[in-house]
Structures are given as C-alpha cells and as structure tokens.
C-alpha cells in the first residue's frame, strides 16, 4: 500500500496527463510558464541546486545572470513536462517538422550497417520527444531504461507513456538484467537510447566535467565494447515552441589498447566532453536539479 503522499503525487501526475493533453497548445505553453515562474519565485531547494549547477557551467556569471538562467531553466523544465503530457496525442507527422536533428545521417548509416546503436545523451531539453522522433519519423523502435519511481503507480504511468510512443522500457534495478536485454537488442541491430550524464552508484565512472569530478554511467561504453555497437553522443536544445533541435555527434570509438576498465573510462570521458559542449551552448535547457559533482555530494552531513 502506498502512503498518502504517494497517492497525492500519483494523482497530481495523473491529473496532468489527463488535463494538459486536452488543452490547446498555446494554453499548455502558457500554463507551463506560469507554473515555472511560480516555482522559481519560491526559491526552493531544486531552484537553488539548479543555480549552483549552472554556476559551474557558466563560471563568469554573476548573481543576476544566474537568476536569469535559472528562471529560463525552470521554464525549459516545465516545457518538458507540458510537452510530455501532450506527446501521446501528438500527430506523428509533426515529429519530422517539430524536431530538427543535425547530422542524423550518422545515426541512419550506423543503423543501416546492422551493428546496433547506443545513443547517449544528457538531460537536455526533451529527450522523450527525441525518442518519439526516432520511433515516429525514422521508424526505428528503441529500447531504454527508466529508474523505478515512487510511488510505483507513477513509474507505471511513465512506462505506459513511453511505450505508447513505441519505446521498450526496462526497469533500472541495479542488477545485470537490463544490461543483458540491451545487449541482445544491440546484437540484433537495434537502437538503445540512454540518458547518461548522472550516475551516483558505486559503478559510476569518474569524469572531469566543467573542471570538477562527477560520475557518469559505464553502461553506454560497456555496451559498445560487448556488442560492437556504435556509441553515438547526442545533444538537444529548445527553439521557440514547438521546435526542438539536436545533433548526432560522431561515434565514440573503442580504444585499441588498454584494459576494459581503462577503455570504459576513456569512452565515458569522451561522452562527458560532448555533453559539456552541448550544455555550455544551451545551459538554460539542462534539467539538472539534483546534486551531480562529488564535492557537492560531500557537503551533506
């Protein structure tokens, strides 16, 4: 049985899914901005953490500039939610017009080769919409992994939502079950998409990220090594609604020398470097409202 708070959270998300998708698009956009501005003015923990993270991304920004960025960041974050609530009812034809992906030929050619493809991306703009573009516009089913959310009914909503867009969603249980399934999909020439800019587990790979140490998941690099799949970083950013822009970056290749651990570290650092470039160019679209860098984690008592 879930707690009263769990039921409340699930009910609110359910209301969002049921109500927002029925709104005209301009009304949904306006609602998202109002909610974002309200949350930003309250200066809660998430907003303060977002500003702290942005201070690393834009180190020369003063307090006023950081407040401007965090306000834009909250608007971007709420835009993600408003779009996500509406995605299941969106005409798939729009994926080819609303989403403009630069250098998508890299992805198409890698898929055509039959090797399988791992696309790794950070929490930039709307990664769900990018996934819907892959399934609805390119016409390729994809497999991804989602953390188990609390309450469980909320996690079930997320899974059903992503599956309605043509995605196979595996639970992140901390074990090897998801990895094995992902590897099988890749060996059969499939597409795997993983959000990969934050991993606080013991298996996370330490990387230099904006001049300090953070941890990112080893999974994308390990999958490429185990299966021979192409590892392609991707970055996204928002234009004026409803436009989403992105870029498929060149393949991160497996180093020819070194142990598996050494190769994984080199490849994960290469991903981090691409992520940092995309985040620095569009910091307001990076939805990182949690602690990320190790020295921030150490602040906790």
Walk across the major sheet and give the strand order: 1-9-8-2-5-3-4
Distance between the termini: 31 Å
- What's the story with the biggest beta sheet? 7 strands, mixed
**What percent of residues are in strands?**
15-25%
The whole-number mean of residue pLDDT values reads 90
Task: Choose one word for the global shape.
Answer: globular
Structural class: alpha/beta
Strand and helix order: HHHHHEHEHEHEHEEEHEEHH
Write the layout of secondary structure elements.
Elements: H1 4-20, H2 25-42, H3 45-57, H4 63-86, H5 95-98, E1 99-102, H6 104-112, E2 117-121, H7 127-138, E3 142-147, H8 152-164, E4 167-172, H9 177-187, E5 191-195, E6 205-209, E7 212-216, H10 219-227, E8 230-238, E9 244-248, H11 260-281, H12 294-297
Parallel strand pairs: 1-9, 2-5, 2-8, 3-4, 3-5
Antiparallel strand pairs: 6-7, 8-9
Helix pairs in contact: 1-4, 2-4, 3-4, 9-10, 10-11
Brief characterization of the structure:
With 301 residues, the chain is an alpha/beta fold. The protein is 52% helix and 17% strand. Strands 1-9-8-2-5-3-4 form a seven-stranded mixed sheet, with helices on both faces.
Describe this structure in words.
The strands form 2 sheets. The chain has a 7-stranded mixed β-sheet, with helices on both faces. Strands 6-7 form a two-stranded antiparallel ribbon. It is built from 12 helices and 9 strands. 37% of the residues are buried. Helix content is 52%, strand content 17%. By secondary structure, the protein is α/β, with parallel strands linked by helices.
């Amino acid at each position: 049985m879930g707690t009263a708070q769990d039921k409340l959270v699930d009910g609110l998300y359910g209301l969002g899914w049921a109500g927002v998708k029925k709104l005209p698009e301009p009304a949904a956009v306006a609602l998202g901005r109002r909610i974002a501005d309200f949350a930003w003015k309250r200066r809660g923990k998430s907003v303060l953490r977002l500003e702290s993270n942005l201070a690393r991304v834009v180190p020369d920004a003063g307090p006023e500039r950081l407040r401007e960025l965090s306000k834009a960041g909250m608007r971007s974050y709420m835009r993600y939610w408003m779009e996500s609530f509406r995605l299941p009812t969106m005409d798939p034809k729009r994926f080819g017009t609303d989403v403009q992906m630069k250098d998508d030929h890299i992805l198409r050619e890698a898929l055509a080769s039959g090797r399988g493809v791992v696309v790794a991306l950070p929490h930039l703009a709307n990664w769900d919409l990018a996934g819907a573009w892959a399934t609805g516009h390119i016409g390729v089913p994809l497999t991804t992994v989602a953390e188990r959310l609390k309450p469980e009914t909320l996690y079930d909503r997320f899974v059903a939502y992503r599956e309605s867009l043509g995605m196979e969603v595996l639970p992140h249980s901390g074990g090897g079950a998801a990895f094995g399934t992902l590897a099988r999909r890749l060996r059969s020439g499939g597409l795997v998409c993983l959000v990969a800019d934050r991993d606080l587990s013991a298996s996370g790979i330490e990387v230099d990220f904006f001049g300090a140490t953070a941890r990112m998941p080893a999974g994308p690099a390990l999958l490429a090594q185990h299966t021979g799949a192409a590892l392609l970083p991707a970055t996204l950013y928002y234009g004026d609604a409803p436009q989403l822009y992105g870029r498929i970056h060149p393949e991160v290749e497996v180093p020819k020398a070194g142990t598996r651990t050494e190769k994984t570290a080199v490849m994960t650092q290469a991903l981090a470097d691409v992520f940092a470039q995309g985040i620095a160019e569009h910091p307001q679209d990076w939805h990182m409202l949690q602690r990320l860098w190790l020295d921030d984690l150490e602040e906790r008592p």
